[in-house]
Amino acid sequence: DYLEGFNKNTLLSIFIVPEIDNTVYSVQLVGDSAYIPYNQKGLVDQFPPYQVFNDTIGKIAVVDLVSQAFVRDIMLDTMGSGAMAIYNYNDQLYTICETNGVIAHYDPINDTTIFKAPGVTRGIAQVDSLIYVDYATNLGAYDVKNMQTVNDSIFAAGLYASGTLDTLNAEFYINSTDFGSYGLSEVYLMIG
Questions:
Q1: Closest CA to 120 of 132, 105, 112
Q2: Which of 8, 114, 129, 171 has the greatest number of beta carbons closer than 10 A?
Q3: Cα separation of 131 and 136, whole Å?
Q4: 187, 172 in Cβ contact below 8 A?
Q5: Ordered DSSP codes for 132-163
Q6: Rounded to an integer, what distance in angstroms lies between the CA atom of residue 117 and that of residue 18?
Q7: Strands (E), 69-122
Q8: pLDDT at 136
């Protein structure tokens, strides 16, 4: 496994980053660098053979887009496990770390990370300083500018597989499935 960059016009491979060897769900750009959250699977399976690794480490890889090379990993440790969605607000990065329900605020200028624990699990979208996230089975909004929950229950989304926000029509699209017997897509107004 590795991360691969492609030319958007020709879809030809431009570069490979072998240091990122696990699944990547999102990327954010700050200046000439790409910030890419991913997880390093732990070594101690708490419930063999189910691969429940309590020692999984969350990381943010930094890739220099000019030299097209891996620069370093920002370690989020086990607190940042489940790092998947990353958002940029005023060149500050916010990573949703699903395992512990935290948001990791990384400041690239000062190279510091602060964890906030609003109890979120999934990031869906961003509008200005608001990140739309999952609070248990409700979709809510978290304001990264003030680092606080604005609304933890815009609507009850239930357990869902994926979602996105259509900002033009102010609607959320939520997809639910059990990955076997059914699939369901629902549309919700942004105001609830």
A1: 132
A2: 129
A3: 15
A4: yes
A5: EEEETTEEEEEETTTTEEEEEEEEE--S-SEE
A6: 32
A7: 69-77, 83-89, 92-97, 102-107, 112-116
A8: 77
* CA separation for the pair 155, 136 (Å, rounded): 11
* pTM, rounded to two decimals: 0.86
Q: Which helix (H) or strand (E) holds 67?
A: none
Quote the CA–CA distance of 108 and 40 in Å, as a whole number.
21
Closest C-alpha among 104, 65, 67, 108 to residue 84 = 104
Q: How far is CA 187 from CA 64, 134, 167, in A?
A: 38, 16, 13
pLDDT, tens digit, for every residue of 2-41?
788 899 999 999 999 999 888 888 999 999 999 999 988 7
Q: What is the CA radius of gyration of the chain?
A: 17
Backbone torsions φ then ψ of 123, nearest 5 degrees: -95, 135
Short-list 78, 116, 111, CA closest to 94: 116
pLDDT in tens, 48-81: 666 666 678 899 999 999 999 999 999 999 899 9
User: What is the structure's pLDDT at 53?
Assistant: 64
Condensed to tens digits (0 to 9), the pLDDT of residues 72-129 reads 999 999 899 989 999 999 999 999 998 889 999 999 999 999 999 888 888 889 999 9
Structure tokens at 120: 């979120």
Asked if 41 and 59 touch (Cβ cutoff 8 Å), the reply is no
Asked if residue 53 lies in contact with residue 41, where contact means CB atoms within 8 angstroms, the answer is yes
